[in-house]
Amino acid sequence: MELFSEAWARAYCEKLSQSEAYRKAAATWEGSLALSVRPDPGAGLPQGVAVVLDLWHGACRGARVVEGEAEADFVIEADLATWQEVLEGRLEPLTALMRGFLELKKGSLAALAPYAQAAQELVKVAREVA
Questions:
Q1: Which of these, 63, 72, 74, 119, could form a disulfide with 13 (CB 3.0-4.6 Å)?
Q2: A Pfam family matched by this chain, by name (predicted)?
């Protein structure tokens, strides 16, 4: 399944909603999250692409793929190679954020901090789909 495709986004959303660990970790989370890929004409992404997840109290209510700039409460952006490393388990997301490989384009790190476990579960489920 192609990463950041409509099929991948749907499968990811479904798996998130089925994950008991994610449900517990994100029980109080309310808001949308975009996983955004920077434009890369060489990879066939001249405008970039993002998966926008509608997350609510430990469930994914929907997912969509958008080209270009993503609108969400929180937007995390990286190049495709970095996302692949994260989703293959070769790069931890918190490390990637701190080192600047992943960039929080919208939203506050302080607002995300209480949801560190939920973030780990988001990545764990994404790795199962990838």
A1: 63
A2: SCP2
